[in-house]
Specification:
GO biological process, one term: regulation of protein targeting to membrane
Shape: rod-shaped
Largest sheet: 37 strands, mixed
Protein name: AsmA family protein
Radius of gyration: 51 Å
Helix content: 10-25%
Keywords: Membrane, Transmembrane, Transmembrane helix
Length: 820
């Protein structure tokens, strides 16, 4: 290595090397001197022939335009672009002949450099090989009538091949720096506005055809294919290289670019533009992998304003195809396709996780109805995902008419019902077990991009569901529900419901369900058919109580969700129940073979055509029950037929009467009542709340160990059996007035004595009853053949007139008639 370095050193210091180095230096210096001489000669030539050169350039330009060309000054740039001749045009303006009408200057440039071929110039030919435009404004204007200021250029006459020469003017290179370019097409409502920092291109000609690579660095101010809808890629930086080619035969420009940067994202673009007279068709195809928000922000405002309400967390593969006519009004045809895999979709109504689908957007859903929002559609295919933890599968979903969007499709789902708990934000229902399957054809409106009024046709099956319906404190276990949505009605089949001691089997129908559910829930009639092997009637009261309390506490929300809308419908709809029960329990009352029609309106329970068997007899009734503060107000119209009076009174806690208990009386009671009153939250009758009319009679009756009669009998009837009194007649006509009862007619015909009473009986203070008691022994009156005969002997003999009055809360018997 040292030997090699020593050899090189000796060579560089040798006389031969110095000789050749000196000659090479003279050669370089000669070339520099020659260049300076040539440049000086060109400068001398320009200064000497400036007027002639300017005249040739003006002539050349004016030969090719229909307008006005103005140059402020010319300048030769010494050595710039050598060996070409570089001419700088200062303060250049180019206007068409109608400039005064529209006031848009086609070209206004601070400086334009034209590099001319020196040999062509010496032969009196202008051959421009490169144009540099610096600090300029270019405004291409097209009026509503089709006129364009770009038509300033005269069409070239086509020459035969033999007439063409190599000396024809061509421009091989074009550079733009700091150029503001606007294409304003008022006819087609299009506006393209670019701030071009740099554009560089070098053209290769093949006869009349050419191709070039164009480097472009610009900011997009507007790329509006329809100015009514806004710009694509507005305020985005665009940077990249375009491969551009022109075919003279097809009169078409083709453009291809790869990894074009728009903002921070890369795009692959293929495009074409027709230039033939009367044919301004174009097509642009864009492919990229991009985040949803970034893609949305590249689109025009009418599209991005909608898409920005959605989001996908991971990048997606997108292809956008734009085709149109620069001379046509309105939007071009736009088709966007996207592939989404293992992504998370955010929508105004929530989030859909683990979603996969193919999405298509088109603004020409029906080919003959134009390119507009009303004819736009979004189509999703092979959609799968989880909405609020509920798995969804949608083979195809179409959202048509983006002015008034309507979505249609089919959805299926198969899941454990506990997942429904995540849908209810206000936690009004909680599921603990069960399995659900759904297969539905759906349609819903989209208002402000929120799902509204979803309509379904299909089936939902829920098996073995257990839930807690919190507003009414209902807890159900092992409930089966089968719903069949049809166009005319909702059919509710095979609901098996168990709650505490109650078992209920339900079928139902809601006519015109799809319309009334959203537009008039108060007009919705839910028809139920219920069969109950065993039910506790108090549960109905519990439902009413909780519903009323929840209703007053309910808070309004800014937006009606599916969950809280369902709650509203449940509260407002009319429920009609045809019920049949083998066994009903109400406090101590046990009824069998019960039938009734029950209506639930808001918080009111209306019972019609009720019929039941209890206490050895039957009862028919109509009734209404509704919450009243902490209690329940009821009204009833009932007929009691031959029930065991002791058992019946025991079932209703003796109606609050404390002066005797059901063990004191027996017999078959028949009664007719038309009363109102209050029931407490435990289902107990509030005695002093009752108002109305009551008539009754007891057959085969007996009064056993009734203390007031026993007390009287000790001194009044010492030889009669007052502890075991049988009745041939026990009847009454009462008017209930809360705490007091007007006894209009109370008749006892018994084995011990007869008794008639009238006046006031009070559950509290104020009793004042007039008692008429014949002292004759009535034991044998039962043997008389007719009632007339019994009435004739009823008051023979000595008759006692007594009063039963209130004495400090106790009943006291006095002599005398009422009021004396």
């Amino acid at each position: 290595m040292k030997a090699l370095l020593l050899h090189i050193k000796n060579f560089l210091q040798s006389a031969g090397f110095r000789k050749y180095a000196r000659r090479f230096g003279f050669f370089v210096a000669g070339c520099v001197v020659l260049v300076l001489i040539l440049a000086g000669s060109l400068s001398f030539y320009f200064n000497r022939n400036k007027t002639e050169i300017i005249a040739k350039i003006n002539t050349k330009i004016n030969e090719n335009i229909n307008g006005e060309f103005h140059v402020g000054d010319f300048q030769y740039k010494f050595l710039v672009g050598f060996p070409n001749f570089t001419l700088a045009l200062k303060d250049v303006e180019l206007k068409d002949k109608q400039w005064k009408t529209h006031q848009h200057t086609l070209l206004k440039a601070r400086e334009i450099e034209a590099r001319l071929n020196i040999w062509s110039l010496l032969q009196n030919e202008i051959n421009i090989h490169k144009i540099l435009i610096n600090d300029a404004d270019i405004y291409v204007y097209k009026a509503e009538n089709g006129y364009s200021n770009a038509n300033i250029f005269k069409p070239k006459k086509k020459k035969a091949p033999e007439e063409k020469s190599d000396t024809e003017t061509t421009i091989d290179q074009v550079d733009l720096n700091d150029v503001h370019f606007i294409l304003d097409n008022r006819l087609g409502h299009k506006l393209f506005d670019f701030d071009i920092a740099s554009l560089k291109t070098e053209v290769d000609y093949d006869g009349s055809d050419w191709q070039t690579d164009v480097f472009l660095d610009t900011q997009i101010k507007s790329l509006a294919f329809n100015t009514k809808h806004g710009s694509f890629a507005k305020e985005k930086n665009l940077k990249g290289t375009f491969n551009v080619s022109y075919s003279s035969e097809k009169e078409k420009i083709d453009v291809v670019t790869r990894n074009l940067k728009i903002g921070k994202d890369a795009f692959d673009i293929t495009a074409f533009f027709n230039l033939a007279q009367g044919n301004a068709l174009f097509g642009i195809n864009i492919g990229t992998t991009i985040l949803w928000q970034n893609a949305s922000n590249v689109l025009s405002a009418n599209i991005s304003s909608k898409l920005n309400r959605f989001n996908l967390s991971k990048p997606i593969d997108v292809n956008c195809d734009i085709r149109g006519d620069f001379n046509a009004e309105g939007d071009p045809k736009i088709v966007v396709q996207a592939i989404i895999k293992d992504n998370e979709l955010s929508i105004p109504d929530g989030q859909i996780k683990n979603c996969n689908f193919k999405g298509i957007f088109t603004n020409n859903f029906k080919p003959k109805e134009g390119f507009n929002d009303a004819n736009s559609a979004i189509i999703l295919t092979r959609f799968v995902g989880e909405y609020e933890n509920i798995p969804l599968a949608i083979p195809q979903l179409s959202i048509n008419n983006l002015e008034k969007p309507v979505a249609t499709g089919n959805v299926s789902s198969d899941f454990e019902v506990e997942r429904l708990n995540e849908i209810s934000n206000d936690k009004w229902i909680q599921f603990t077990s069960g399995h659900a399957k759904a297969n539905l054809k759906f349609q819903f409106d989209i208002v402000d991009l929120y799902i509204t009024k979803p309509r379904f046709i299909g089936k939902i099956d829920v098996d073995n569901a257990s839930f807690h319906y919190i507003p009414k404190d209902i807890q159900a276990v092992n409930t089966n529900i089968h719903l069949d949505f049809t166009e005319k009605a909702l059919l509710i089949k095979q609901i098996a419901y168990k709650h505490k001691k109650s078992t209920v089997f339900i079928e139902g129908k809601i006519d015109n369900f799809l319309n009334l559910y959203y537009d008039a829930p108060e007009r919705m009639v839910v028809n139920w058919k219920i069969y109950c092997p065993n039910i506790d009637l108090k549960q109905f009261l519990g439902v009413l109580a909780t519903s009323q309390k929840k209703k007053t506490a309910a808070k309004t929300t800014k937006r009606t969700t599916i969950s809280n809308h369902l709650r509203t419908v449940i509260d407002k709809c009319l429920v009609v129940i045809d019920i049949k029960a083998d066994k009903i329990n109400y406090n101590k009352l046990t009824a069998t073979n019960t039938t009734a029609t029950i209506q639930m309106v808001d918080s009111k329970l209306v019972i019609k055509n009720g019929s039941l068997q209890t206490s050895g007899g039957s009862i028919t009734f109509n009734s209404e029950v509704q919450p009243s503060g902490k209690n329940f107000a009821f009204s009833a119209d009932a007929q009691v037929n031959r029930v065991d009076i002791a058992s019946f009174l025991r079932s209703f806690n003796n109606f609050g009467v404390t002066s005797f208990n059901p063990n004191n009386i027996k017999g078959k009671l028949s009664s007719q009542a038309n009363v109102t009153g209050l029931i407490n939250s435990n289902g107990g009758l509030i005695t002093n709340s009752m108002h109305g009319n009551l008539t009754f009679n007891v057959k085969q009756g007996a009064l056993l160990e009734f203390e007031p009669i026993v007390k009287i009998g000790k001194f009044a009837f010492p030889f009669r059996d007052v502890r075991n009194i049988t009745f041939s007649d026990l009847s009454g006509n009462l008017k209930l007035r809360g705490e007091q009862v007007d006894v209009n007619d109370f008749t006892i015909s018994s084995s011990v004595l007869n008794l008639d009473a009238e006046g006031i009986y009070s559950f509290g203070r104020g009793t004042n009853l007039a008692l008429t008691i014949p002292l004759r022994n009535s034991k044998n009156d039962i043997n008389l053949a007719t009632q007339a005969e019994r009435d004739a002997v009823r008051e023979r003999g000595l008759v006692l007139h007594l009063t039963a009055v209130d004495d400090e809360g106790k009943m006291k018997i006095k002599w005398g008639k009422k009021g004396k």
